[in-house]
């Protein structure tokens, strides 16, 4: 049993890979039905370049037995595995090896593609060569931590978030159908009155009067009574209901046919089902995160709502894995990259080589933070200094996303509540949204 934690073992092994000859390295190219392993040592002596084994217990046991024999024969101290993530096919193998106590790491697809060119001079994709390519990256120490040591509290959080994002995508598709299939034919004028097409009023119209013709055939009093029950009555809502009824009187919309009526019913059923599923997922996420102190601390930061906070925790998981906030910035793909040749130096830009889910959450958190008075003032100050245009806004939002990571890291590592006054104080010496470059 190792006294070091899994992350500490990983760091130690990664630092020693090129100079320690006591490791037996195994690069595995994963596929659906079978895998290919390349077994070598740190001196690049290859025992098996194309060891193929099936994707079930018997095949994996055979591969481990072969590795075990080599390890015992040549006195290697540890087996180190590396995989290139492939859909979901790599997860059972990685979890199985991890549960047996082996060190499991992974290589990025970008690194694998670039390294493949150095091996054979060109990009050529096939499974046996990929196994050697992965083993070669492992030998170079170009591996990444494969986080299988989940906190039990957040183990199911990331799959829930990914499922939620898929459902959100389906919800967007349903909204597009309402706009482009139903109302575009039957009542095109209504589109200008609602930013959110899944507004309860729109749903009620779609349920009872999907065409302008049907609205024309009823009195305003009857129409108003139907839409009034969808929520609180305000002056704006009254005016909007009247505008709908008035526009319907002069609409060019088509009459309802049997096919369109059936499609409207199906769309409503799908809409209600997706929203019900989303509410269920949000409830599950809240039950997982609700008792977490980290979750409560992050919620205090402007822009970090329940969903974006849960995504941050699902991806980052354990802050102890990170020695500095820069590592989380790199994980999000917000680290700067540029090209340089002689006197030429390109503009810096975000690498976008990190976790897309985390970037999505940070973008949402930035938009939420800019609704907060103090963040909005600081943002507008920077716009005045640099010039208010589309590019400047985009750059400042990226820098604010980076700043949000630093704030979140400071709050969690110090276990202190968020204090906007500290942000204001720092902004006097150096504006909060400006990151040091160079």
Question: Could you walk me through the main structural features you see in this protein, from its secondary elements to its overall organization?
Answer:
α14 crosses α17. 28% of the residues are buried. The protein is an alpha+beta fold and 438 residues long. The chain is elongated. It folds into three domains: 6-149, Nucleotidyltransferase, domain 5, CATH 3.30.420; 160-282, Helix Hairpins; 293-429, no CATH class. Helix content is 58%, strand content 10%. The protein has helices at 6-16, 57-73, 90-99, 109-120, 127-140, 157-186, 200-208, 212-216, 220-228, 235-249, 258-289, 293-299, 306-316, 325-331, 356-369, 373-386, 390-414, 420-429; strands at 23-29, 34-41, 46-54, 78-83, 103-106, 144-145, 336-337, 340-341, 344-345, 349-350. The chain contains 18 helices and ten strands.
Sum up the structure in keywords:
438 residues, alpha+beta, Nucleotidyltransferase, domain 5, Helix Hairpins, 3 domains, 6-stranded mixed beta sheet, 18 helices, 10 strands, disordered C terminus
SSE blueprint:
Elements: H1 6-16, E1 23-29, E2 34-41, E3 46-54, H2 57-73, E4 78-83, H3 90-99, E5 103-106, H4 109-120, H5 127-140, E6 144-145, H6 157-186, H7 200-208, H8 212-216, H9 220-228, H10 235-249, H11 258-289, H12 293-299, H13 306-316, H14 325-331, E7 336-337, E8 340-341, E9 344-345, E10 349-350, H15 356-369, H16 373-386, H17 390-414, H18 420-429
Parallel strand pairs: 1-4, 4-5
Antiparallel strand pairs: 1-2, 2-3, 5-6, 7-10, 8-9
Helix pairs in contact: 4-5, 6-11, 9-10, 12-13, 13-15, 14-17, 15-17
């Amino acid at each position: 049993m190792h006294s070091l934690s899994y992350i500490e073992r990983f760091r130690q092994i990664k630092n020693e890979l090129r100079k320690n000859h006591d490791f037996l390295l195994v690069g595995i190219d994963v596929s659906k039905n079978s895998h290919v392993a390349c077994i070598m040592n740190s001196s690049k002596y290859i025992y098996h370049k194309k060891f193929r084994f099936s994707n079930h217990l018997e095949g994996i046991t055979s591969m481990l037995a072969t590795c075990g024999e080599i390890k015992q024969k040549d006195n290697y101290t540890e087996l180190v595995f590396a995989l290139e993530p492939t859909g979901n096919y790599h997860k059972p193998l990685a979890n199985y090896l991890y549960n047996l106590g082996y060190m499991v790491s992974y290589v990025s697809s970008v690194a694998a593609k670039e390294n493949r060119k150095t091996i054979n001079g060109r990009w050529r994709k096939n499974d046996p060569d990929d196994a050697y390519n992965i083993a070669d990256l492992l030998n170079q120490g170009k591996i990444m931590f494969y986080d299988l040591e989940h906190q039990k509290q957040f183990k199911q959080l990331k799959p829930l978030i990914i499922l939620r994002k898929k459902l959100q995508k389906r919800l967007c598709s349903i909204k597009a159908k309402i706009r482009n299939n139903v109302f575009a034919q039957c009542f095109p004028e209504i589109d200008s009155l609602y930013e959110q097409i899944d507004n309860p009023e729109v749903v009620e119209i779609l349920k009872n009067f999907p065409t302008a013709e049907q609205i024309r055939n009823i009195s305003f009093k009857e129409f108003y009574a139907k839409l009034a029950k969808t929520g609180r009555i305000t002056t704006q809502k009254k005016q909007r209901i009247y505008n709908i009824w008035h526009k319907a009187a002069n609409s060019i919309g088509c009459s309802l046919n049997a096919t369109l009526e059936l499609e409207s019913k199906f769309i409503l059923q799908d809409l209600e089902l997706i929203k019900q599923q989303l509410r269920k997922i949000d409830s599950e996420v809240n039950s997982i995160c609700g008792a977490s102190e980290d979750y409560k601390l992050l919620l205090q930061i402007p822009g970090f709502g329940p969903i974006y906070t849960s995504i941050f925790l699902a991806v980052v998981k354990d802050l102890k894995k990170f020695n500095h906030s820069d590592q989380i910035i790199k994980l999000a793909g917000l680290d700067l990259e540029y090209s340089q040749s002689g006197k030429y130096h390109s503009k810096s830009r975000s690498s976008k080589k990190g976790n897309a889910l985390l970037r999505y959450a940070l973008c949402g958190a930035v938009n939420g933070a800019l609704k907060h008075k103090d963040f909005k003032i600081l943002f507008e100050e920077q716009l005045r200094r640099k010039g208010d245009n589309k590019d400047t806004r985009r750059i400042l939002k990226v820098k604010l996303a980076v700043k949000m990571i630093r704030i979140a890291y400071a709050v969690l590592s110090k276990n202190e509540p968020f204090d906007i006054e500290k942000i204001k104080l720092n902004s006097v010496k150096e504006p909060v949204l400006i990151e040091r470059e160079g």
